[in-house]
Specification:
Number of helices of chain A: 6
Order of helices and strands of chain A: HHHHHEEEEEHEEEEEEE
Oligomer: homodimer
Largest sheet of chain A: 5 strands, mixed
């Protein structure tokens, strides 16, 4: 029998796992303990640093509420959310890439006719979003639900300002017809900072990182027989494209926004989405 | 400029650290991100597992209070606390080894004359603890403060039962004289489970691990010119010595407890502590 020492620490902890333990849980926890102990040995973590870490994690948990998830924000800011996304959505050639879901989606947004404007607060410049939902062979997908959401022109989602913004401001769901096309109007989104008044904001500041995300429109597209796609389209030219605080940008998700002279919109952007089969 | 991908994820996150960042913070965070991303890639963490982890960490933070520190418990149960202790207290030959501080120490316990009994609730079997505080050359250390604390015979510290136990039950501070000796009476401690009604208890159950700690008396010994020693002495023969839930046991910290016929105690144990110089 061996007691825990610097040399055998991870092995000792993992040696305690019971025989009847779920094999996947054993695999995940064993690797977690191995890597966690390796990290501590690598940096020779001091007791003061350990105490700071305990305090940081505690504050991160305590600031969480029904409307705030600081651990997701931490995961986002450390690139963990995008890494998990990348591992779980290795995209075949031709399919549209995914990115972070984010904390601001709300289920049950209004189902609207094609072309409807989802901006209800009269702020910002209106943009026509249009394109097709296609399969890997380029065929249109009928009955795809295109669920879209964005911030308003002040950089806040409706759920962040329930008393200031109309309900369902900048949210809507559209259903494709036989030709697979979608079209709706919304604002040309603006870049905004992730909530930075908590532990994650303090971490970013200590690391010399800014909290800004480049402007983007969120899409969640579901269609029978196809894998759900969660992604954004980013506004081309945004100054934060190269330094998204949550690492969500992919080159193929950056769209051109074209200024137009039209009574119904100031901008237009076209983007086709390609779903992969289940 | 490169966006985050499965291949470059840790490098991309660490590449964002600002130039003016404190070098030690940079070193710690870079290693943390490297190891965290390696762990996620190693197990190919699923989105459901990521969500479970976010929920676990959130609950762990939310159950923390003035009287409960679940993240310290998590650190203890994963062997992290003992690893940090081992790294920060590499003990020279001859010095007494340290172990976990634990969450139950209270500053300001009564300073008592040598020989006083610290048990005030009339429960349990009394034991005489005696020995010397020495330097590495075997010379007695005068004016060492020997701060001791233990659970009561029901397995609870006074702070866990503020309405049931007398204040300062099983706590006291003793000051050594010129001969370096200490002596006090307390109970022969009993093994007890760490609080297992929260996330850490659920984790232990899922891993097939029990929450018990072998019986022990806590010591914190401070003396001018010497490094502070935080340790336990464990009750020899305890059935949990080989499976302490927090991995605190070291062979050299296990003491013999001898049954005696005496009007003042039922047990005696002798243990010398050797401090290293600052």
């Amino acid at each position: 029998m061996s007691y825990l020492s610097e040399a055998n620490s991870a092995e000792t902890v993992n040696g305690r796992i019971g025989e009847a333990t779920d094999p996947r849980l054993r695999r995940v926890m064993t690797s977690l303990v191995d890597h966690l102990h390796e990290f501590i040995k690598d940096v020779e973590l001091t007791e003061a640093e350990w105490e700071a870490a305990i305090g940081f994690l505690t504050r991160t948990g305590q600031i969480c509420s029904d409307t705030r998830q600081e651990f997701i924000l931490l995961s986002d800011a450390l690139g963990v959310s995008m890494l998990v996304d990348a591992i779980n959505h290795r995209t075949p050639e031709g399919a549209t890439e995914s990115t972070v879901f984010g904390p601001f989606h709300v289920e049950g947004a209004p189902k609207l006719p094609m072309g409807t404007c989802i901006s209800a607060d009269g702020k910002g410049e209106i943009c026509l979003y249009q394109g097709r939902v296609l399969d890997l062979d380029g065929r249109p997908i009928e009955n795809a639900l295109v669920d879209v959401w964005s911030d308003n022109a002040d950089g806040f989602y409706d759920v962040q300002q329930p008393d200031l913004q109309p309900k369902w401001n900048n949210r809507g769901v559209f259903r494709t017809g036989p030709d697979g096309t979608y079209a709706f109007r919304g604002i040309k989104p603006v870049s905004y900072p992730i909530p930075d008044d908590g532990p994650v904001g303090q971490m970013l500041a200590a690391l010399g990182r800014h909290p800004w995300r480049p402007a983007h429109m969120h899409f969640r597209i579901t269609a029978p027989g196809h894998e759900r796609l969660i992604t954004h389209i980013f506004v081309g030219g945004d100054s934060y494209l190269g330094s998204d605080a949550v690492f969500g940008v992919k080159a193929a998700l950056i769209a051109d926004f074209e200024a137009v002279q039209s009574p119904t919109e100031a901008w237009r952007t076209a983007f086709d989405f390609v779903l992969r089969p289940i």
